[in-house]
TrEMBL record:
CDD domains: BCAT_beta_family. The keyword Protease does not apply. GO terms for molecular function: branched-chain-amino-acid transaminase activity. This is Branched-chain-amino-acid transaminase. It comes from Capsella rubella. Gene3D superfamilies: 3.30.470.10, D-amino Acid Aminotransferase, subunit A, domain 2. NCBIfam families: ilvE_II (TIGR01123), PRK13357.1 (NF009897). Belongs to the class-IV pyridoxal-phosphate-dependent aminotransferase family. Keywords: Aminotransferase, Pyridoxal phosphate, Transferase. SUPFAM superfamilies: D-aminoacid aminotransferase-like PLP-dependent enzymes. GO terms for biological process: branched-chain amino acid metabolic process. It comes from the Eukaryota. Its cofactor is pyridoxal 5'-phosphate.
Length: 355
C-alpha cells in the first residue's frame, strides 16, 4: 500500500476534526467517547447487522450468563491516524477469527469475520474525532461478545450480545528504558484444557492479587510460568514474550495456555524477514534467564523491551536501547501501522480516504 498524497491533517487540539482532549497527556485508560456498536443474536439464530448507538450504560438482566457464569470474551485492536490524513486498521480480520475461536470454546454464537470487521469500521468512523493526531496515540477498540440472556442452571442461552466501543489511548508502557518484570512463582495464569488460549473475561482478574503486589513492589508487570511444571515461561499479564540468543528468536509454543497474539504472529514474520531463525517451543526459565535480549508483544504493548526480570529476589538484566531487535521491530511495525512505509504484507486496512 503506497503512501497517500493527501495533505497532512492539522494536529492542534482546537481543530474541529478533534475532540477536546489534552493529547500530550493521554494515558492508556478509559475515556468516554460518543458512540458504540451493538448487535444481538437469539438462540438458534445468526447474528444480524447491528447498529451504532450513543455510548451509554447497559441494561442487563441480573441472571445474564455473563454475570452468572462468566460467559464472555473481548478483543482489542487499534485505529491509527496517518500523517497524510488516512485512518488505518491493522489486521482486524485476525481479531475476528480469534473471537470466533474463543466463542467456540465458550459455547457461544458469533458474528462472521466480515460482520466483525464491519462493526470495527463503523465504531471507528462514529468516533472519528477521538482518533488522536499522528504521533499522539491511537484509538483503542474493544469488541465484546457475551451471554446477555438470563440463564440459571440450564441451556440454552436465550440471547448473546456483540458490541464494540472505542477510546483514545497513549502508550501502555511509557518507560522506554524497558520493563522491570517479576517472575510469578505461586499464581498461574492458565491451565491445560482451560481458557488461556482465548480472550475469556475470566482469565484476568484471578491474577490481580499477584499483579497488585508486584506493582506495589515497583515492578512493571508479571511474567507467568506454566501450570504443569512451574519451570517454563509462558507470557505476561496481557502480552506474549520473546527472547533472542545469538541469531535465534524464540517464543513459547501455542499449546492452549498461551494467547495467539496478532502482534506475536507479525513479529515472527518480521524476524524471519530480518534474517533471524524463529522457534516456537517450550521455553525453560533457565534458558530465558541466559538470553541476550527479551521483549514482549501485544496490541497494547506493541514491541517493548524487557530490561530485567526478578525471580526469587535474584535480578537478571537484558540488553536494551536503540540497537536492540525490539527497537527495530517496534519501529518497523509502527511504521507499517501508521502508513509511514509501504505495507507490502497486506496487513493494514484503510477505512476512510477523506481524513
Amino acid at each position: 500500500m503506497a503512501p497517500s498524497t493527501h495533505q497532512p491533517l492539522p494536529t492542534s487540539v482546537s481543530d474541529e476534526k478533534y475532540a477536546n482532549v489534552k493529547w500530550e497527556e493521554l494515558a492508556f485508560g478509559f475515556v468516554r467517547t460518543d458512540n458504540m456498536y451493538v448487535a444481538k443474536c437469539n438462540h438458534g439464530e445468526d447474528f444480524q447487522e447491528g447498529k451504532i448507538v450513543p455510548f451509554a450504560d447497559l441494561q442487563l438482566n441480573p441472571c445474564a450468563a455473563v454475570l452468572q457464569y462468566g460467559q464472555g470474551l473481548y478483543e482489542g485492536l487499534k485505529a491509527y491516524r496517518t500523517e497524510d490524513g488516512r485512518i488505518m486498521l491493522f489486521r482486524p480480520d485476525q481479531n475476528g477469527h480469534r473471537l470466533q475461536a474463543g466463542a467456540k470454546r465458550l459455547y457461544m454464537p458469533y458474528p462472521s469475520v466480515d460482520q466483525f470487521v464491519s462493526a470495527i469500521k463503523q465504531v471507528v468512523l462514529a468516533n472519528k474525532k477521538w482518533i488522536p493526531p499522528p504521533g499522539k496515540g491511537t484509538l483503542y477498540i474493544r469488541p465484546i461478545l457475551f451471554g446477555s440472556g438470563p440463564i440459571l442452571g440450564s441451556f440454552p442461552i436465550p440471547e448473546t450480545t456483540f458490541m464494540a466501543f472505542a477510546c483514545p489511548v497513549g502508550r501502555y508502557h511509557k518507560d522506554n528504558s524497558g520493563l522491570n518484570l517479576k517472575i510469578e512463582d505461586k499464581f498461574r495464569r492458565a491451565f491445560p484444557s482451560g481458557t488461556g488460549g482465548v480472550k475469556s473475561i475470566t482469565n484476568y482478574s484471578p491474577v490481580w492479587i499477584p499483579m497488585a503486589e508486584a506493582k506495589r513492589q515497583g515492578f512493571s508487570d508479571l511474567l507467568f510460568l506454566d501450570a504443569e511444571t512451574g519451570k517454563n515461561v509462558e507470557e505476561l499479564f496481557a502480552a506474549n514474550v520473546f527472547i533472542l540468543k545469538g541469531n535465534v528468536v524464540s517464543t513459547p509454543a501455542l499449546t492452549g495456555t498461551i494467547l495467539p497474539g496478532v502482534t506475536r504472529n507479525c513479529v515472527m514474520e518480521l524476524c524471519r524477514d530480518f534474517g533471524y531463525q524463529v522457534e516456537e517451543r517450550v521455553l525453560p526459565l533457565e534458558e530465558f534467564l541466559e538470553s541476550d535480549e527479551a521483549f514482549c508483544t501485544g496490541t497494547a504493548s506493541i514491541v517493548t523491551s524487557i530490561a530485567s526480570v526478578t525471580f526469587k529476589d535474584k535480578k537478571t538484566g537484558f540488553k536494551t536501547g536503540e540497537e536492540t531487535l525490539a527497537a527495530k521491530l517496534f519501529e518497523m511495525l509502527s511504521d507499517i501501522q501508521t502508513g509511514r512505509v509501504e505495507d507490502t504484507k497486506g496487513w493494514t486496512v484503510e477505512i476512510d480516504r477523506q481524513g
